[in-house]
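Action item from last meeting closed. Structure (138 res):
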């Protein structure tokens, strides 16, 4: 699967792609606990979360900047989508709190890749996932 993804993005050097998919397991680092949880670990009512929709690998590094500069990427959206094609997942990254939230709706998130957004939804502590109800610009 990794080789298939690499063949799709032939314009990027292998070293650049390694940054895109090497930290997939770290997508939910620093996820805070919700203050009110059900037995299943999900918050009772929807909350608003803010941050940037980015790929899980760049979120684990805290920014796209290093990889974009190294690879000469045009913008955050293009870079995010290249990393997703290489195996990363779309996440919400809150730079102010250095918190990464996995998103259950990758399709809606895709149209906001590289953008600062507000996500309305519930947070499941056990799976460390935001159950997206709505995404909009911040």
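Sequence:
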């Amino acid at each position: 699967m990794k080789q298939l993804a690499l063949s799709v993005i032939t314009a990027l050097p292998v070293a650049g792609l390694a940054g895109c998919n090497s930290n997939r397991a770290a997508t939910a680092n620093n996820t805070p606990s919700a203050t009110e949880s059900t037995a299943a670990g999900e918050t009772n009512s929807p909350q608003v979360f803010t941050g940037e929709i980015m790929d899980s690998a760049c979120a684990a590094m805290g920014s796209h900047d290093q990889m974009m500069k190294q690879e000469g990427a045009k913008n955050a959206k293009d870079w995010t989508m290249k990393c997703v094609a290489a195996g990363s997942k779309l996440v919400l990254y809150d730079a102010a709190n250095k918190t990464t939230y996995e998103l259950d709706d990758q399709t809606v998130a895709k149209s906001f890749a590289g953008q600062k957004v507000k996500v309305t939804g519930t947070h499941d502590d056990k799976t460390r996932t935001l159950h997206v109800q709505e995404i909009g610009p911040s």
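Note appended to the action item: The first strand starts at residue 47 and ends at 55.
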